[in-house]
């Protein structure tokens, strides 16, 4: 029975790479990156044809996409969402605000980019980030996730 559980776990981990579920969290921004992120779901770009689905529950998400600047209040929420995601979790920071705080970085309530609170795996620059760049960032995130999935021998790929 233990053998079956391990085999199923590896199968499920590999399957989630083929159909990743994304959780989007806006820390607080002008919503330019949010609009571009939602454009990825429209028929023009249609990322859902690749199996990518936007979900609202962090316990179901494979990739966390974060836009906007981080402040002390939303930093706690961001950390909480990150902690609720299953391993291996991947974080994509989108836009100038998500990378460094953007034009708001000198404001009194801005901590900076997303990496000040949680580890970031992929950075997508731009103000706002273009849908093509966001899709490329998700593809790079999937490559990193694939490297962390257990292999047939039981260990993670290097």
Describe the protein.
The mean pLDDT is 84. The chain has a single domain, classed as Rossmann fold (3-Layer(aba) Sandwich). The protein has a 5-stranded parallel beta sheet. The protein contains 5 helices and 5 strands. It is globular and about 55 Å long. By secondary structure, it is α/β, with parallel strands linked by helices. The two termini are 28 Å apart. Helices cover 39% and strands 14% of the residues.
Number of strands: 5
CATH class: Alpha Beta
Count of helices? Answer: 5
CATH topology: the name is Rossmann fold
Distance between the termini: 28 Å
Helix content: 25-40%
* Mean of pLDDT: 84
Strand order of the largest sheet: 2-1-3-4-5
Bin the strand percentage: 5-15%
Sequence stretches where pLDDT stays below 50 over 5 or more residues:
none
The quaternary structure here is single chain
**Main pleated-sheet profile:** 5 strands, parallel
Task: Write a concise synopsis of the structure shown.
With 158 residues, this protein is an alpha/beta fold.
Per-chain topology:
Blueprint (H helix, E strand, L loop, with lengths): L1 H17 L2 E6 L5 H8 L13 E3 L7 E5 L4 H13 L5 E5 H6 L21 E3 L6 H18 L10
Parallel strand pairs: 1-2, 1-3, 3-4, 4-5
Could you name the key traits of this structure?
158 residues; alpha/beta; Rossmann fold; five-stranded parallel β-sheet; 5 helices
